[in-house]
Amino acid sequence: AMLRLKGEGEAGANGGPNGDFYAQIRIIHHADFDRLGLDLACEAKISFSQAALGAKIKVPTIKSETVEATVPAGVQSHTLLRLKGLGIHREGGKTGDEFVRVIIETPQYLSAKERELLEELAKIRGESVATAKKGVLGKIFG
Prior knowledge:
The protein is rod-shaped. It starts with a strand and ends with a helix. It has helices at 48-53, 112-125, 135-141; strands spanning 2-5, 21-24, 34-36, 39-47, 55-60, 66-71, 80-83, 98-105. By secondary structure, the chain is α+β, with helices and mostly antiparallel strands.
């Protein structure tokens, strides 16, 4: 985008009025945040346990500090949490909000105890899941 400041350029020839000053503005994408007006958006990865039980998590802010956000129990993946007033501040004006999209991560590897506990939870909830392989092949591939 180009910004024009009328009459703020160099002095005109032969005592004429000042010219215009043009500045080219380039907005660089931030690695952690997306911007929509004065609002910011980022993502935070949480575990299944944190999603199911609720949690307090640390999230980044545009000021390079972290704040604590409350994840409510039973939150679903891709839910937006609103952090009021932590967006872009317009001088003399209002401040936007920061929105944190929670992403529930599924563990790729489980210990034997973790697998046992999750199988028990699935059994209590009446859910059908693949159970651990038994025997020599189960030890090699499980």
